[in-house]
Amino acid sequence: MKFFIENVYVLFPFNIIFPEQIQLMYILKKLFDNKSHGIMGIPPGIGFSMVTICFFISYNFSTKLKKKLIYCLRKEVDSISLIEQFRTYLGESNEKFSIKNFEISPQITVPFGKKTLCIEERLKPLTKIDEIEDFCKSLLAFSVYNEKKKEKIFSKLNINSDSYLNSQNQCFFFQNFLKKKKKLDFRKIWTLKILREFGIRKKICPYFFSRDIVLKSDVIIGTLKKFFFSDFFFSKNQKNVSLSYLIFEDIYDLESIQLIFSSINLNPIIL
User: Fold this and answer.
1) Which of 9, 21, 56, 188 has its CA 20 to 30 A from that of 196?
2) Euclidean distance between CA atoms 13 and 17, whole angstroms
3) 120: left (phi over 0), alpha (psi -120 to 50) or beta
4) Number of C-alpha atoms within 13 angstroms, CB side, residue 206?
């Protein structure tokens, strides 16, 4: 379905739209245009997440602002479920909106963890995230870290660095990712399954590929923990975050942030 919300040409992946959903899009446009904070009471069954993401993709294309939408949920399982739903609704043709002679290919992802994405066979017996992190660092030591950092990693793992460095203990998938990263196509809706299958098919590391995807995505769906307590997200994405629209699906997340950071400015507010 295609229609206008004022000057925004909106693409909606359903044949029916309800008046409440159209009203919600007008409110979102007002918030985006004015760069304002807003608090909305949304009754269940409206499809807030789907309406918001679809409208943002169309709005971003129409205004050519190239901003990001950071969509914050309470649980990681909700993030995974939402991105799976979104890809299902758009169909197996995979994520292409069509406006006249233009195509919108939105890039949407979730910041998945290393434990769920790693396809290296040697990490399979490890279950604790700290063990996975340490072993992964040891495999990357050849390519990423300086000598001082290498020694620290090997000392923690109780490994002789000289014998280890001479034994070609490298992560094949990471090495391949470094070689192929400039040629990879990012424009997709990246679910967990698609990321892992893509990594296996291309023989690259899905985790490090997903980090690049997050930096280039139009819409990032995740949890409060992923967005506000992730060193990677803020160290690599700080400039983009400052130019993004941030939406909390649960008002109590705002209270959590206020308790953590002492203050949060919500002025002006559109109710």
Assistant:
1) 56
2) 10
3) beta
4) 24
